[in-house]
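Residues pack. One example:


***
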Amino acid sequence: MLELLNIFVDNMIPVLAIAAIGFYLRYRFDIDPRKMSSMMFHVFSPALTFNALYTRDISGGDFLRFYGGTLALLLTIAAFSLLLLRWQKISSTERAATLVATFAFNGGNFGLSIVSFAFGDEALSYAVLAFVAGTTTSYTLGVYISSNGRASIMQSLANVLRTPSVYALVLAFALKGAGIQELPPALGRTTQLLADAAIPMMLVLLGLQLGGFGRFDRLRLVGLGSVVRLLMAPIAGIFIASILGLSGDAKFAFILQAGMPTAVMTIVLANEFDTDPDLALSIVMTTSFISPISLSLLIYLLQNGTI
């Protein structure tokens, strides 16, 4: 029990403290998180993605296994959630909001910081792959579901081309493939500084976004979405990691990212396509509040070799 408490204090308290700063700023000064979110999307997240992958030794085979495994995990969760929701007497917008909330995980704000604190920079590199895979899935499958099929498959896929982190990923592997092992100091230090700033800014942004929370409702759907996201998803992650033969830092990052709370992107999509943003926000808040406990337990089990 003492070890579990130490894990919570060492890994979760820093995350919650920085997010609380953003929450306070939203409450005290009514800061609009949209501009900061735009900066994060276009500058800091791509810099973190590029730096983490360019400065670490991840082979093409490892990349394909990990990236493909993350996509398989998200599709598995989506299919499982869809099966559960078929038996619920709910509207199409409630179904869409809950479904997206179960497979869209917060691999950026929460995931990257917690993986980095718990397992270090090598695991962080793999966590970035899961983050990018999750982002591209949100911008494709997430958009398609949130639009209730109004957005075509091609339109949804086109959203990937508007995701800067995807280009950062491609650039990092292209440079490594070309044998360019080190950037000029001016460029390398610039990307390093931007990457170093990304994680704390992500956490402040998370607090700003959660600061707009209103009220809880539809507890049955919120409970269903939370159980799938925080319990079923990491269990599925354990099985898929085993099937893929992941080990060490790759295994730790994969399973831990699988257990992250619902992504704030869920609210963005719900607002954009008018698919019950209040329900999406309730699930985001619930999973964000509960996840420090579930993630502490998951870290404990991973560090002790139980899973």
The mean pLDDT is 89. The domain at 2-303 is CATH 1.20.1530.20 (Na+/H+ antiporter like fold).
